[in-house]
# Entry
Amino acid sequence: MDDRIAPAHGGAPAGAKAVWVRETRFGRWFLGTEIWRRYVLAEALRNLARMVEGRVPVGGHILDLGCGQGIAAPLLDAAFAPRRITGIDIDPELIALGQRQTYDAGLSDRLLLRPGNATDIPLADASVDLVLCHQVLHHLVPQREALAELHRVLRPSGLLLMAESCRSFIETGLVRALFRHPRESQRNADEYLDLVRSAGFRVDDRDVATSSPWWSRRDLGLLGSPDRRRLTQAEEPTEVLCVAVKM
# Structure
């Protein structure tokens, strides 16, 4: 185990600074399910793609930070027609699973999955046109350092597509029982937007969307249907999406 990775119970080895809290066995399994791919990942990416329509160059280089098994790669390929997709994840086991699936997806000529740390991304300055950061920041302790790295690798005016679950979801009882997250890193929607802006990105109001997806309800959607619903005035968003531009 990387000495900068905290184990599932949330503690880090003595003398080490935790970068990431290792997911539970259930959580690692869930990230490979069709429910995750279809209703969490694909839905967020569809909404983000609509928000950036006409602003992403064809044939660009996309970074999928926290790519896991690389499940987003075919979706990114279909949405943006890049010449290259680089997927980085700190968990080498998930990367190994994804590498075995690369050929099945028909992307082996333009997809590279590799182990890497969000605070030390193995890419050159200004070498990426678009970054997908989907459900990653709430797993990280050094969030500001990770965003600084994304700012570094993006070209000028490059785009960061971010989707995050908010504190109002992460700190519900079922989520805390089934998954592991560093509690000190959890934020609400406005706090995530402030964090992104503080890293040198511009986020316009038109490039922000908040919602309460069915899977983020207190019962994890078990008693509901897979649709998004409007927030009542008293409710706090459980998910925030944004498009951020490197300044």
